[in-house]
C-alpha cells in the first residue's frame, strides 16, 4: 500500500513517470483553476491602467503587448485547467488547450520584457533583443507543435533560457531603477519551478507553482507601472 496516497488521498495522487502527465485529484484541479482565475480581472485592469497612463503611441503599443501577454497567461491557464478537470469527453480539446497554455508562456515571457526593451535606453549591443524575444517565442511555439510533452526537461530548459537571456541585456540599461524588482520577480519564478516539478511529491504542487507565478508577475507589473509608466524624474524613455 502506498502510504503517501493513504495520507494525502484527497489532496495528491501518486507520482507518475516523466513521460506521462500527472493526474491531479479533484481538490488539486479546483486549486489549479482558482489560483490563476483569481488574477484574470486584476491583470486586465492593470493592463488597462498602463494603457491610460501611456504618453505616446510607442508606450500605448507596449502597454497592449504587455497587457495581452499578462492577461492571456492567466486566462489560458484557467481555461486549460478547467477543461482538464472536465476532460472525460474532451480529450482532444484538452490537448489543444494544453498546447495553447504552453505557447502562451513563451509569449508571456516576451511580453514581460517588452516594456523594458522598448521604453528604456539600452546599450549599443543590446537593441536587437527587442525583436529577438519574439523570435524565441515563435521558435518555442514551433517546438510545442512538433514535440509537445515529449521532452519535458528540454521544454523547461527552453523556458528558463528564454527568461534568463534578455535579463543579461537589460543589465546594459543606464537607468537601473526597477532592477531590484525584476530580480525579485525572477526569484519568485525560480523558486516556483521547484513546485512545478513536484506533482505527486507535494500536495497541490501545481497550484503552489501558480501562486509563485502570480507573485512574480505582480512584482514585475509593479516595477513596470512604477518606473516606466508613472511620471517622475526616475523615468527614462528611449529616444524615438
UniProtKB/TrEMBL annotation:
A Pfam family of this chain: HlyIII
Amino-acid positions noted as binding Zn(2+) in the UniProt annotation, renumbered to this chain: 81, 206, 210
Membrane-related topology note: Multi-pass membrane protein
Presence of the UniProt keyword Lipoprotein in the record: no
Keywords, alphabetical: Membrane, Metal-binding, Transmembrane, Transmembrane helix, Zinc
One Gene Ontology term, aspect cellular component: membrane
Primary location recorded for the protein, binned into one broad class: membrane
Coiled-coil portions: none
GO molecular function, one term: pore-forming activity
Compartment(s) of residence: Endomembrane system
Residues spanning the membrane: 30-52, 64-83, 103-119, 125-146, 153-173, 208-228
Keyword Protein biosynthesis part of the UniProt annotation: no
Source domain of life: Eukaryota
Family classification: Belongs to the ADIPOR family.
Name this polypeptide is given: Monocyte to macrophage differentiation factor 2-like
Lineage of producing organism: Eukaryota, Metazoa, Chordata, Craniata, Vertebrata
Amino acid at each position: 500500500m502506498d502510504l503517501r496516497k493513504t495520507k494525502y488521498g484527497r489532496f495528491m495522487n501518486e507520482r507518475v513517470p516523466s513521460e506521462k502527465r500527472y493526474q491531479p485529484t479533484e481538490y488539486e484541479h479546483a486549486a489549479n483553476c482558482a489560483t490563476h482565475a483569481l488574477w484574470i480581472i486584476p491583470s486586465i485592469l492593470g493592463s488597462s491602467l498602463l494603457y491610460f497612463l501611456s504618453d505616446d503611441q510607442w508606450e500605448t503599443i507596449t502597454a497592449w503587448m504587455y497587457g495581452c501577454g499578462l492577461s492571456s497567461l492567466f486566462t489560458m491557464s484557467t481555461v486549460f485547467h478547467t477543461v482538464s478537470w472536465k476532460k472525460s469527453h474532451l480529450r482532444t480539446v484538452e490537448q489543444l488547450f494544453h498546447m495553447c497554455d504552453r505557447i502562451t508562456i513563451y509569449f508571456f515571457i516576451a511580453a514581460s520584457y517588452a516594456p523594458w526593451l522598448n521604453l528604456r535606453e539600452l546599450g549599443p549591443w543590446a537593441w536587437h533583443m527587442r525583436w529577438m524575444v519574439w523570435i524565441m517565442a515563435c521558435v518555442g511555439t514551433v517546438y510545442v507543435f512538433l514535440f509537445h510533452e515529449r521532452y519535458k526537461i528540454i521544454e523547461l530548459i527552453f523556458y528558463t533560457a528564454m527568461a534568463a537571456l534578455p535579463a543579461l541585456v537589460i543589465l546594459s540599461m543606464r537607468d537601473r531603477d526597477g532592477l531590484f524588482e525584476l530580480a525579485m520577480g525572477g526569484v519568485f519564478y525560480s523558486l516556483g519551478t521547484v513546485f512545478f516539478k513536484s506533482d505527486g511529491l507535494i500536495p497541490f504542487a501545481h497550484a503552489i507553482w501558480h501562486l509563485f507565478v502570480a507573485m512574480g508577475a505582480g512584482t514585475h507589473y509593479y516595477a513596470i507601472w512604477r518606473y516606466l509608466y508613472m511620471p517622475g524624474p526616475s523615468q527614462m524613455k528611449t529616444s524615438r
